[in-house]
Design the sequence.
């Protein structure tokens, strides 16, 4: 589009361009249709070093796998100090969130939001653990350990069976209890317009 | 203040947060009472030096140590000798500050921190009671960190833009600064601002009730410029913005917002971003809830779908009565608050006062602000300080002759879309209550704030519809 504007202007149609209010757009930074070209191409290696996100459909989930039994060990060594041995009662003063329990409380007077009761996607559990856990050594867990601890947390929450081996494929197939618990934002929701 | 009945209906985590915030505010207030008489500087409250120590808690001692020779000065100030008569001797030497100035040692207002379990994941509130104009001093801008404040060398920082683009590219800070830049004044408000105030008046001061909003002049590159450079592929609809902090904070943002007014900001109020605000680079999404303005920005991935990060599923979603939660509630709706007089101030007597405060809207310009001094029975038009800018704090003022009788002060703003700020009761009726006191959602409170003035001049946080 910018290229067309440039042709217009060069073609002597300045008056038309101005009257359409697009002459300013040309001056304000379209760079006459060309790119500035600053920066450098990002290599696959550049990207893979920091591209750690995992999406609900499994995109981004790395190779590897983990079992409930392995996850139990990982949890005890890496997570229990803050999230508590049973996942439902975090250790006081750590700021950790409860991971298990709370199903059926979202409509009660005291909703208890946990991975089990509230999180809509299992991918988020892998993604968040990989990027930010454990709190004082974020990014220190390997992918197999993360798959394993995800398997352990989800099985303890009664969402998957204890024999489910967690990997990129099974992660995307997990159906979280509150999967359909989210709606889009309709605001404004109060109408006091003049 | 924190009677158990006030907290019924909030979830356990919210109850803990509210108790903690009340405790922090009380510590700051207690220290203030000890330090200052009521009449100091008229009736403006402030947190004195001891107040800082109390507010900072155990960290206070460490902070003093690191300030070394200036241990006696408040944060952000240097301790200089106070002259008996500055007209009878020379003042201190030019450039004695090393070339970067500091505020007067007599000015001591500070942010106070909500006492979360960890100091890495925490937030601080702006002392709005003393605010003037619309700009928040960079050192007083509210903070919300999820993994502490990283210390990043801008010479080594890069932004990678990839995903559904024609060519993935990597930008150094020097690269980004070569692009044509823009400067805009915008507020950023945390969607948790006011989270304690849904059910009953809970915190006492405007710093506590409204201190999670700030306005700065931001300078940077329009994100649209960068999207044009990399070329966005058909079918793209969202981006993921990712920070380089210990939380590796991530939020999904609709692509349309990125093409309209999103900015990659590297400067704040005329200088590089403060570390607490994302130095060297942050995303700025005018009008969106604060959490989406990803700080320490290191990566943008273009995609067809949202990424469903923890911060947009487990957190920052609005659980409603009925058990469903609103997701991607981005826009901060029109809101206002009287900052002077406000909670815990004391008017010295009947007479003239200029009421003043701030109004803002994530949907554009503030069109008008109405003021009531009788709890909403009658309203008068406030004067708005020009220029009025879009998605920016707007200062309002209103002359008031106080007759010395009890009064309830309220402000109500309307933005250029015609949306008018509701009462808290109206919000609760739609989102939070079905007669059983259910409060799943603590975010996005933009209700009218009421300050009760007693006949003795004391000002208190009250609810009045």
Sequence:
């Amino acid at each position: 589009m910018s290229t067309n504007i440039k042709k217009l202007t060069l073609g002597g149609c300045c008056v038309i361009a101005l009257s359409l209010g697009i002459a300013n757009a040309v001056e304000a930074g379209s760079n006459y249709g060309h790119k500035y070209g600053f920066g450098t191409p990002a290599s696959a290696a550049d990207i893979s070093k920091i591209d750690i996100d995992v999406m609900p459909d499994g995109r981004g989930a790395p190779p590897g796998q983990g079992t409930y039994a392995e996850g139990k060990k990982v949890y005890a060594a890496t997570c229990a100090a803050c999230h508590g041995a049973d996942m439902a009662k975090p250790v006081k003063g750590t700021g950790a969130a409860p991971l298990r329990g709370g199903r059926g409380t979202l409509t009660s007077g005291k909703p208890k939001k946990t991975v089990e009761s509230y999180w809509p996607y299992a991918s988020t559990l892998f993604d968040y653990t990989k990027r930010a856990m454990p709190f004082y050594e974020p990014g220190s867990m390997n992918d197999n350990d993360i798959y394993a601890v995800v398997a352990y947390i989800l099985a303890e929450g009664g969402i998957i069976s204890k024999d489910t081996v967690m990997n990129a494929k099974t992660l995307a197939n997990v159906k979280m209890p509150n999967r359909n618990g989210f709606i889009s934002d309709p605001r404004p929701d109060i109408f006091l317009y003049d | 203040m924190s009677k158990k009945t006030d907290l019924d209906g909030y979830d356990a985590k919210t109850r803990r947060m509210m108790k903690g915030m009340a405790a922090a505010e009380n510590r700051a207030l207690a220290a203030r009472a000890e330090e200052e008489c009521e009449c100091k500087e008229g009736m403006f409250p402030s947190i004195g030096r001891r107040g800082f120590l109390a507010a900072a808690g155990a960290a206070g001692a460490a902070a003093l140590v690191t300030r070394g020779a200036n241990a006696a000065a408040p944060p952000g100030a240097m301790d200089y000798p106070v002259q008996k008569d500055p007209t009878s001797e020379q003042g201190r030497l030019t450039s004695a500050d090393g070339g970067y100035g500091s505020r007067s040692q007599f000015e001591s207002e500070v942010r106070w921190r909500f006492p979360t379990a960890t100091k890495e994941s925490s937030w601080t509130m702006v002392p709005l009671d003393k605010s003037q104009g619309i700009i928040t001093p960079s050192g007083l801008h509210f903070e919300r960190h999820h993994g502490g404040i990283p210390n990043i060398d801008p010479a080594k920082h890069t932004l990678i833009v990839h995903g559904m683009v024609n060519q993935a590219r990597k930008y150094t800070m020097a690269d980004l600064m070569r692009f044509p830049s823009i400067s805009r004044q915008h507020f950023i408000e945390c969607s948790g601002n006011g989270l304690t105030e849904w059910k009953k008046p809970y915190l006492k001061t405007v710093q506590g009730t409204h201190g999670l909003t700030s306005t700065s002049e931001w300078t940077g590159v329009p994100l649209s410029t960068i999207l044009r450079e990399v070329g966005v592929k058909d079918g793209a609809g969202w981006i993921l913005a990712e920070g380089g902090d210990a939380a590796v904070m991530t939020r999904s943002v609709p692509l349309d917002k990125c093409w309209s007014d999103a900015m990659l900001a590297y400067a704040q109020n005329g200088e590089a971003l403060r570390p607490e605000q994302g130095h060297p680079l942050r995303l700025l999404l005018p009008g969106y809830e604060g959490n989406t303005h990803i700080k320490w920005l290191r990566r943008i991935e273009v995609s067809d779908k949202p990424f469903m990060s923890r911060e947009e599923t487990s957190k920052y979603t609005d659980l409603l009565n009925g058990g469903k939660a609103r997701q991607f509630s981005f826009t901060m709706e029109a809101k206002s608050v009287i900052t002077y007089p406000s909670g815990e101030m004391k008017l010295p007597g009947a007479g003239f006062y200029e009421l003043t405060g701030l109004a803002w809207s994530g949907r554009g310009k503030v069109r008008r602000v109405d003021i009531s001094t009788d709890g909403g029975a009658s309203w008068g038009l406030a004067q708005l300080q020009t220029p009025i800018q879009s998605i920016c704090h707007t200062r309002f003022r209103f002359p008031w002759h106080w007759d010395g009788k009890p009064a309830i002060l309220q402000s109500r703003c309307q933005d250029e879309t015609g949306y008018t700020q509701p009462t808290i009761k109206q919000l609760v009726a739609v989102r939070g209550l079905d007669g059983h006191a259910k409060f799943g959602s603590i975010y996005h409170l933009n209700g009218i704030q009421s300050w009760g003035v007693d006949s003795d001049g004391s000002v208190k946080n009250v609810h009045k519809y």
